[in-house]
Structure to design on (66 residues):
């Protein structure tokens, strides 16, 4: 499983991160799933982006599996 993230700020100045998971199923088909869409409450520093990403993994209880 691999992940991609994307961050942006809305016109109303709210910041968000999307987390997408990518994997290959038993039939060897590439699958993509939007895992989470999280509001970022602080600046886009590396530490805050990491914390937001980990929060998304924790929401699905997979932080210790990846």
């Amino acid at each position: 499983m691999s992940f991609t993230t994307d961050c942006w700020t809305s016109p109303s100045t709210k910041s968000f991160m999307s987390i997408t998971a990518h994997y290959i199923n038993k039939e060897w088909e590439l699958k993509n799933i939007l895992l989470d869409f999280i509001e970022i409450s602080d600046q886009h520093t590396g530490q805050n982006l990491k914390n937001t990403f980990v929060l998304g993994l924790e929401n699905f209880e997979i932080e210790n599996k990846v």
